[in-house]
Design brief:
CATH architecture: 3-Layer(aba) Sandwich
Structural class: alpha/beta
Strand content: 15-25%
CATH topology: Rossmann fold
Shape: globular
Number of domains: 1
Number of helices: 15
Largest sheet: 10 strands, mixed
Helix content: 25-40%
Radius of gyration: 22 Å
Length: 400
């Protein structure tokens, strides 16, 4: 039962806190989300109508189709290399990859001479099973020990798919990386400026209320305050996600070396927000410290931090609002076509409803952002070459 599991994780945290004192918010998030027995993702992965949050690909197939078009447009702009890898970090149920593969399949004539493969970076065994069913119809086999991929299969459209636990296991090569609602679930550290300098926000037992957790400030500086606060920081409260920094550095190194691009789509801000750590349960806000392991915990992505962490190995674009990106990608035209082709009122209403969810500033239109990493040469012109094509999504899409 949920309550039993809840109690187990809370007891485990409580013993840990009593034995070793307060823990960082990052350590708390790691336990609550990925504890092997009771973690939120390990146990359920609550995506979809019945879960704790709904993601854009679950709302509308158009979302994934436009992202597929973005990758093809970048592939064409860089001279149509003979092969590319589509690498998705944290692919959820596989809905987004499926929508992208549908577009690739519809554009077979364009991609006919290109060798396309899909590489999914997924730690959850439960989610990788769901992805395999959705993308291959169950035609997968586990890999033997000597391979970096732990599972492989073939998509319904005939494209090879590989599963990995870590981005470093993905083979090098010209690749398009996709991180949709991936960075927001990585553990963050929280910091507070005080008269005595920066202090880290920690999670501890509440001595007043048994079985409850509370936030406390570290009595002195911590490794986090020493390493993660930028000297020029102007805010008084800061959230930093070192893991996101590491992953972005890896992406930047790969793109610098092998070409391609990375597209990051997430809740976020450009270094302006302070306190964004929150929990969701049954689509409602949930206190982050209560019933650990039963709610999805997230924090807005600080794109200014990601930009710093690329260390100028790549060019970055954005963040721009989701509604601007999708508008630039031609969502309005796509909607018109789907509306014209739909036979019944129910389908048309569903299309309009999902368009509103994605584009309405009050819904996902403004809080969701797109951010890209591209090789410098994609935007900085060597002399006397043909003019560079604008980057779709961040400019209006020009389809020849």
């Amino acid at each position: 039962s949920g309550a039993g599991a809840e109690a187990v994780l809370l007891r485990h945290l409580w013993r840990k806190l009593r034995a070793s004192g307060p823990v960082t918010v990052a350590e708390y998030m790691r336990e609550a989300l990925t504890n092997p027995a009771q973690g939120y993702y390990t146990r359920r992965g609550g995506i979809g109508e019945s879960g704790d949050f709904i993601t854009s690909p679950e709302i509308s197939q158009v979302f994934g189709e436009l992202i597929g078009i973005w990758f093809i447009s970048e592939w064409m702009a860089t001279g149509k290399p003979s092969s590319f890898q589509l690498v998705e970090l944290g692919p959820g149920r596989g809905t987004l990859t499926e929508d992208i593969l549908r577009v690739f399949n519809q554009l077979t004539s364009v991609l006919s001479k290109c060798d396309v493969s899909v590489h999914l970076v997924e730690v959850s065994p439960k989610l990788s099973e769901i992805q395999a069913r959705m993308l291959t119809g169950g035609k997968v086999q586990p890999n033997t020990e000597d391979k970096s991929a732990y599972m492989e299969g073939v998509s319904k459209t005939g494209i090879p798919i590989f599963w990995y636990r870590d981005i470093q296991d993905v083979p090098p090569g010209y690749s398009f990386y996709l991180a949709h609602e991936f960075f927001d679930a990585l553990p963050i550290h929280k910091f507070q400026r005080t008269e005595k300098g920066w202090r880290e926000v920690l999670v501890d037992i509440d001595p007043e209320v048994p079985d409850q957790l509370r936030f406390v400030l570290s009595p002195s500086s911590t490794p986090g305050t020493e390493n993660f606060i930028q000297p020029e920081e102007a805010r008084d409260h800061v959230e930093v996600c070192p893991e996101a920094g590491v992953i972005v550095q890896r992406l930047a190194c790969r793109i610098e070396k092998d070409g391609g691009a990375a597209l990051v789509a997430d809740y976020g801000h450009d270094g302006t927000k302070t306190d964004t750590f929150r929990g969701f349960r049954n689509h409602k806000l949930h206190d982050v410290l209560s019933a650990p392991g039963t709610a999805d915990l997230t924090a807005d992505v600080d794109f200014s931090y990601l930009r710093k962490m690329t260390q100028e190995r790549t060019t970055t674009l954005g963040p721009i609002k989701q509604r601007e990106f999708l508008k630039n990608m031609g969502i309005d035209l796509r909607l018109q076509v789907l509306l014209q082709n739909s036979r019944d009122t129910a389908t048309r209403e569903q299309l309009l409803h999902s368009y509103d969810m994605l584009m309405n500033p009050e819904k996902m239109g403004d809080c969701f952002n797109f951010f890209a990493l591209l090789p410098h040469h994609r935007l900085v012109q060597p002399e006397s070459k043909s003019p560079l094509l604008p980057v779709a999504g961040f400019n209006e899409l020009l389809l020849k």
